[in-house]
Amino acid sequence: MAGADRSLRALGDDVGLIAGGMAPLLVSWGLGQRVVPGFATMFASFGVDLPWSTRFVLHYYPYAFVLALLVAGIWWLWPRSEKRGLAALVSGFGLTALLWCAWIYSLYMPIFRLGASVG
After folding, report:
1. Could you give the angle at which helices 2-46 and 66-77 cross, rounded to 10 degrees?
2. 105 near 63, Cβ under 8 Å?
3. CA 76, CA 66: separation in Å to the nearest integer?
4. Is 72 exposed, middle or buried (0-12, 13-18, 19+ CB in 10 A)?
5. pLDDT for 16-66, tens place per residue?
6. What residues make up the domain containing 103?
7. Is the predicted pLDDT of residue 7 greater than 70, yes or no?
8. CA-to-CA distance for 100 and 50, rounded, in angstroms?
9. Residues with Cβ < 8 Å from 21, sequence gap 6 or more?
10. What does the alpha-carbon distance between residue 74 and residue 18 come to, in Å, rounded to a whole number?
11. Is 31 helix (H, G, I), strand (E, B) or coil?
12. How far apart are CA 80 and CA 4, in angstroms?
């Protein structure tokens, strides 16, 4: 019975770490739902061809929540059970950082290109 209590306690700790890894991705997804459409409207007024990365972000930003599911998948597939929760937490924060870098780069690149062509 002591072993079962220990495994339940470990699962409870992991749930908090998984939630901590998923939360920033879900918040980012929610912010993206509010911010990215404004960029799409602005880019439509430019009347120029957009870089592929910008087109990708404008088309696929609604699916960013899948990255949160990836965190759960990393937890599920992590080979060492005692480190699963930490792996989920670290991967969640890492994926959030990559997501924000990709969005900022992709959404501001057309603006910088337009500024370079004007100046």
Report:
1. 150
2. no
3. 15
4. middle
5. 999 999 999 999 999 999 999 999 999 888 888 899 999 999 999 999 999
6. 2-118
7. no
8. 19
9. 71, 75, 88, 89, 90, 91, 92, 93
10. 10
11. helix
12. 18
Burial class, 119, CB count within 10 angstroms (exposed 0-12 / middle 13-18 / buried 19+): exposed
Instruction: Show the tokens assigned to 23.
Output: 């939360």
Confidence band, pLDDT 50/70/90 cuts, at residue 14: confident
Structural domains in the chain (count): 1
pLDDT in tens, 72-117: 999 999 998 889 999 999 999 999 999 999 999 999 999 888 888 7
Task: Measure the CA–CA gap between 64 and 47, rounded to whole angstroms.
Answer: 27
Tokens of 48: 């120029």
Q: What is the pLDDT of residue 62?
A: 93
Sole residue written with tokens 């998948």 = 73
